[in-house]
Amino acid sequence: MDPKELCSTDLIDGTVGAHIKRPCNSLPTVIVIGAGISGIAAARSLYDASFKVIVLESRDRVGGRIYTDYSFGCPVDMGASWLHGVCNENPLAPMIRGLGLTLYRTSSDNSVLYDHDLESCMLFNMDGHQVSQQMVMEVGDTFKRILAETVKVREEHPDDMSILQAISIVLNRHPELRQQGLAHEVLQWYICRMEAWFATDADMISLKTWDQEHVLTGGHGLVVQGYDPVVKALATDLDIRLNHRVTKISNGYNMVMVTVEGGRNFVADAVILTVPIGILKANSIEFTPKLPEWKAAAIKDIGVGNENKIALRFDRVFWPNVEVLGMVSPTSYACGYFLNLHKATGHPILVYMAAGRFAHDLEKLSDESAADFVMQKLKNMFPHASKPVQYLVSHWGRDPNSLGCYACDLVGKPDDVYERLRAPLGNLFFGGEAVSMDDHQGSVHGAYSAGVMAAENCQRHLLQKQGHRENLPLVSSVRHEMFETSIPLQISRM
Ligand SMILES: Cc1cc2nc3c(=O)[nH]c(=O)nc-3n(C[C@H](O)[C@H](O)[C@H](O)COP(=O)(O)OP(=O)(O)OC[C@H]3O[C@@H](n4cnc5c(N)ncnc54)[C@H](O)[C@@H]3O)c2cc1C
């Protein structure tokens, strides 16, 4: 008898009160909560190891914070769009290669603008006049010097502080680094870019950790065809139940019961929870028994940022052939930028990107007002800008399935906070972007690896419990042979 089939009737869908019988040689059952890349990667690993696995997903689609919209007639990623680390060490590289996806590299390693190179940015002042490239470069160098000085501030202060506070200390010590007039506005734009990377404002970015990320090498590549094919390929053949919002997890010694909106229960030997950190922070899932204090504190002590995109499709291109069109301003809050998708994809699309408080404020507007707002910015630079033919607006902060864009370090974050978030509780395992190892929070590859790791830990735990140790070798990762090819990553830059 196929153990998968047996378990599907006996174990997965029922109640704790039901009489559950299973043959002793059957493989364990697992429920994965969340069909983002992390949950799908976890489910894929387990499925490939012949476990019975179902995925419960609250939305009516898979992908989570990967969302490729096709309504413009071409793919537009409203969530993740870059592969951070265009290198073979990136765990997503085999899939990207195998699916034949093209990466458009917007920056090499260690750019002061994180995922962009300065050379392909054009900045404009508030009157709509272009800022000279020389000033952009010079202020960029000053910004690097200021950041280097903040490292000294960190060494002097045992207690953490925000990067904004550290910058202010540096500028008081080194008045020669202060910028005036337009140069000050350009400096604010660099801070705006930093805020975009961390998806939070500079007064919330931790001085202690902002430069401690282990960013993979190879620079940053936009996935030209969109991230959707990656999700779809991984999700093939998995049992994913859409519109199943989990409201309660009852974690018993021998099994876990998961309750979804409407009251239906699902039972399995173990659960892998991959919902976003914003959902955990909002306490929208009830845990029985209650989460231990150290776990609840970890959830509280991890921050969550916000980032939103407003994508505009035009009938023609009226802007210059650069990757980024930026607007400088006296405050980083009022600075902004458009990503020119035309450069990477050939389609006449600009994507306005907002982070932190500004991203939250944009969500308070109607979509039409948000699109009008960014159109004003565009018209300021290009008075003859045509009206967009279509627009799309994201709302990651107030979307009840995400409640933010990704995890960020709070000022004063305890050192072990991610380890505590990651730690399993009996038969309950934690995946998702926020638990990823080696500081890869906030990335697709980090979320993917976190899912695979949670699946490995879950498999090991369950097989040991059942005494399968010798008979069943762990299938430790997603079947990469399905994607493995000898062709290199395809990288373009027009
Ligand atoms: C605007 C934006 C831009 C980004 N840009 C990049 C980028 O360029 N490159 C990059 O590498 N990363 C980027 N990221 C981060 C990346 O998208 C995430 O790190 C990654 O997709 C998270 O995957 P996940 O599976 O952990 O979470 P999710 O994708 O959020 O998956 C969790 C799933 O759980 C579901 N869920 C929530 N609550 C429940 C519930 N109660 N019951 C059942 N299901 C539930 C959700 O609907 C969701 O599908 C970006 C994110 C955003 C928002």
UniProtKB/TrEMBL annotation:
Pathway: Amine and polyamine degradation; spermine degradation. Pfam families: Amino_oxidase. Belongs to the flavin monoamine oxidase family. It comes from Vigna angularis var. angularis. GO terms for molecular function: polyamine oxidase activity. Transmembrane segments: none annotated. Keywords: Oxidoreductase. Substrate binds at Y352. This is Amine oxidase domain-containing protein. PANTHER family: FLAVIN MONOAMINE OXIDASE, POLYAMINE OXIDASE 4-RELATED. One of its GO terms (biological process) is polyamine catabolic process. One of its GO terms (cellular component) is peroxisome. InterPro entries: Amino_oxidase, FAD/NAD-bd_sf, Flavin_amine_oxidase, Flavin_monoamine_oxidase. Its cofactor is FAD.
